[in-house]
Amino acid sequence: MPTQSHCSIGQPGVPWGDNERQQWRAQTRIQREYQVEVVPKIQALAEHFELSQYGALSYDANRYPLFCLKTRLWDASKPTVLITGGVHGYETSGVHGALQFLATEAKHYEANFNIVAAPCVSPWGYETINRWNPNALDPNRNFVANSKAEESAALMNLVAQLPQPALVHIDLHETTDTDETEFRPALAARDGIDYAPGTIPDGFYTVGDEQNPQIEFQKAIIESVRKVTHIAPADENNQIIGSPVVADGVILYDMKKLGLCGGITSCQYGSTTEVYPDSDKVTDQECNDAQVAAVKGALDYVLTQL
After folding, report:
1. C-alpha dist (Å) from residue 269 to 19, 168, 273
2. How far apart are CA 84 and CA 67, in angstroms?
3. Cα–Cα dist 153/132, whole Å
4. Does the pTM of the predicted model rise above 0.85?
5. CA 146 – CA 219 distance, rounded (Å)
6. What's the number of domains the chain is made of?
7. The domain containing residue 246 runs over which residues?
8. Tell me: the pLDDT tens digits for 289-299?
9. From the CB of residue 141, how many other CB atoms can be counted at a distance below 10 Å?
10. Which residues contact 212 (CB under 8 A, 6 or more apart)?
């Protein structure tokens, strides 16, 4: 169980200013390379998908281009599926799970769906293994009008320009032990509030939208993933990360109100996946497989509803 609960930057009870944000950024470092681990996989998929660049991060535009992949033979009579990964760049299987789905499984669904994917929304976060962007902003709380997070603003612009609205949106995430040991303490310090210790759920779960839960859809995702990895149990309060469990492995958030990526469309079927990569019961590959299983479970369910 994670026990660390302290961030050394700033003064307790005082929100960060520019100096503290710069101090925080100075502590980050490149730990892996987007151009080596991710971009070649995206480019390889251009043999089958239409590859386009929908933006670039101003921190280093050459290093951090933003890519999306779309069905080549787009058919307006088919519903559209949006897949997003790496909104939190440090959540590795969100990126590589999206790429794996596109490389291995997407072809089985293209007869029924148009598919568009942004596999790595936050490449700076990917390289620094970080939840935030360089300005200490969480992209997944900044999918709002006039967003100050470049990553969020660029993706919203991409979605606004899609040929038709998405029927399905699957946003691929992880919940890691470092959420509790590093990122939540830093969030409390940044905002000048007391850190309230929490727990990390041991297993996979999904987050649906309070305004459109689609519980049977969430259940279908859970059952598909259950074949690959274990599902997070509810805690003693029948909660997962402080939210009531509404079905096995399913909780709900108000996506739009919280500025989450899951709220960037008005899709009928939406889910945010949460893989647990720090379990001794799973491998990195199994985490990627779980993300693929989640997308498959989602699309297989939607096919029964069309």
Report:
1. 42, 5, 13
2. 11
3. 14
4. yes
5. 34
6. 1
7. 18-305
8. 999 999 999 99
9. 16
10. 268, 270
